[in-house]
Amino acid sequence: MSDQQKGNVVMALQILLGLVFLFSGFAKVIDPLGGWYKVDDYLTAFSWDGLKTLSFLGSVLLNIVEFALGTCLLLGVWPRMTSIGVLIFMVIYTPLTLYIAIYNPVTDCGCFGEALKISNWQTFWKNIVFSIMGVILYMWHEHSSRDKSILKFIVVSAYTGLFLVVVSYYCYYNLPIIDFRPYSIGTNIPASMEVPEGAPSDVYETYLTYEKNGEKKEFTLQDYPKNDSTWTFVDSRSELIEKGYEPPIHDFTMEDPDDGDLTEDVMANEGFSFIAVSSRIDKADMEQAHKINEVHEFCEANGLKLYMLTSTGIGSDELNAFIQETGAQYKFLNADEITLKTIVRSNPGLVLIKGGNVVNKWAVKNIPDFQKLLDEAGGDMEKVEEMQMHKPNNWATAFIFFAIYFAGLFAVWYAIKKFLLKEEK
Q: I want to staple 18 with a disulfide (CB 3.0 to 4.6 A). Which of 73, 114, 160, 205 is the partner?
């Protein structure tokens, strides 16, 4: 293969890997709490709970490095260093994802945040392919005809770090600028919980353990000693062989200790209902929790319903302490903690439901004054702008994000380059 052909291969791999790293970093940078939760899952799975105090910072820094590396690959900046960066990522993640694929301590690697879910084995084979690409990049980096400026690498890294810290900060204190999760605005929750007719179901293999003369042996349902009384049944187990269809929303419930599951009743309500969400009451932002009381007062005055979903047990000391401190008088219901973290990235957060549809969502600090908005709308609930569904255009948001990012990057680089040329003269 000629040097030019090797250079073309390097450029193609830089662009391909650059786009993948950019997409992966972007999906996680705009959802810093989601990345934090995933890192915590890993630390819990490996019993490294002592490191959880660093998990948020580590998650954000890792996302920034991944995004910056993607930018450098895409622009062809300092090929030798970027190829080493790819290899470092692959040396760490390939063995890790092999372990995860074999032992399944977490069900989703979180490589692409909430934007794209792939199985643990798919993740491992993806990393094998990327590792091969990284090796080729490193071996042939000298054949790259693209920018080999170390200064540009430093500029890109510094600018990217600053830009993404600002973006992560905004998304942390508000909500992700793009919501890839199954509870995004415009989602019909009941429809997202349905399993289509004819959809494949989970396939399990059942294994039966029998004992004879002190020896234990495992059988399947096809070959177990059904009519042989010399064998004694000991135990059975089921193993998932093939995963069937799983609806986007499969674990959403609203449990009342006395009345049971209220999900169907709430979702069937054709009027507006508010659902406040606190994954754990003891972790709620107490300085802002009073805003949920204001929403409750609005609901009481206008014949609407407000429910607080939490994983904290009804009647627990933590919940009683919260009620005592905030004076909360609204109804509390239980739901799964992971589900609640998925619904809204704020603790507490607020979701507006109408006919089972997610109309709007707010981080607690951004909850508007609904009574004021209603008064401005002449008392007509249907004219309150905040209570109308405006499904965001994710493509447009992503385009604006990258347009601002790259425009700023090129402006900074142009200014530095112009300054250096002036100094040389």
A: 73
